Amino acid sequence: MQRMRDLRDALRPHAAKFSNYYQINTKLSGDEQFIPHEGGSRIIHSIKFVEDCQSIWKQGYLVIGICSLVSDHGVDESDLAEFAEKLGADVVIWNAEYSGIQQGVMPVTSFQPGRTATSFSYGAIGGTPYNGVTTTQLPATTTTQYVPVTTNVFQYTAMFWRKEKKAEFDPSTAKEIVAPK
After folding, report:
1. Which tens digit of pLDDT belongs to each residue from 158-174?
2. Which one of 41, 70, 74, 168 has the minimum C-beta count within 10 Å?
């Protein structure tokens, strides 16, 4: 069983890449509404995703993008941090929720190298002695077996956040608001 797990891990592609599934928040007006990103993105692996997102929003952060994917490949936090840095995200909150199992088959190919078989013979035929050597070259062979595989599948979600500038009140530009009668 351990050998099958090792084979599956060797054949699987790298960890799930959030960058392949990123969707930008199109409702934002642009970079001018954010405090400049000074580098370094805080990565939070959340157990309470909704609560953590509400908390970061209350601290003055806005969602600049989101991605969601279903995979059995896991998350590489260093790839996630690198992608967040490219986006200029100050904070990334991500989580994984178990989605079930995925069943399939995985080909396992075994190789049998070619070999040489040599036989020696001797004796006598009608009183005449003989001896001989026979060499046979056996070809290499491969065999492929299809092994059933069951993997756990997770729903991964990541939200990318950026700190919003505080609106400053300027009384000189304020207008009087008159309620309609």
Report:
1. 999 998 887 665 566 55
2. 168
